[in-house]
Amino acid sequence: MAEKKALHAFIKEELIERIKSSDYKVGDQFPTEHEICKEFNVSRTTVRIALSQLVQEGYLIRQRGKGSFVAEPKAHQTLSHTNEHFDQQLKAQGKEGKIIAKTIDVIAAKGSKQERFGLNEADPIQKIKRIRMVNNEITQYEIAYIPWHIAPGIKKEQVEHSLYKTLTNDYNIAIFKTTEILEITLADKDISHYLACEVGQPCFFIETIAEDKDGKVIEFSRSYFRGDKTSFKVERFY
């Protein structure tokens, strides 16, 4: 049945296919371990592994004493070139986004940040911590850095919207190019605090460098996304 694939992986993929094809709809109670064991003729341990992975990957939600239920679809974000901002992408999915600024601090330029922005040592850099929410659930934690001389005195209300729009509208600075590196990481204590997830939970990690048309680095950020709440789409045109 599962060829060379582990049984739990085979069962997990079969159950994911049923969720994606709407055999099980959002909010539906999922079959019990016993029912799945009986259907696939496998041990409870095998089924338990498959279901645990489905919970960890955001397909199911467990409710103590009630069982497992099909979760809301993940919020999709397009990484390739698009004229649509993230809020527009969410609206197209029938979801509502919100940005909350947690802290705005001013730090002294040194090390890699001094070098990245081409600053003198101890020049002021604004460090902005924000979270993004989708349908009132935290999905992203971001730490952004912008030199003071580029956009002096950024305020909380300015960063609770698109940061790039704020730079354009309030400081007359246009972002011409971004370079993004996507990796997988595990949530540490700080990340888990802001993402409201468990320490060690797998997360997407994106490092972004934003430049103007002259190649000057305007903003640098590190963003962490809950892997059970977020997925990414990449489009290529040839």
From TrEMBL:
Top-level lineage group: Bacteria
GO molecular function term, any single one: DNA binding
Keywords: DNA-binding, Transcription, Transcription regulation
CDD domains (alphabetical): WHTH_GntR
GO biological process: negative regulation of DNA-templated transcription
Domain HTH gntR-type, residue spans: 5-73
InterPro entries assigned: Bact_HTH_transcr_reg, Chorismate_lyase_/UTRA_dom_sf, Tscrpt_reg_HTH_GntR, UTRA, WH-like_DNA-bd_sf, WH_DNA-bd_sf
Protein's name according to its UniProt entry: Putative HTH-type transcriptional regulator YbgA
UniProt organism field: Halolactibacillus alkaliphilus
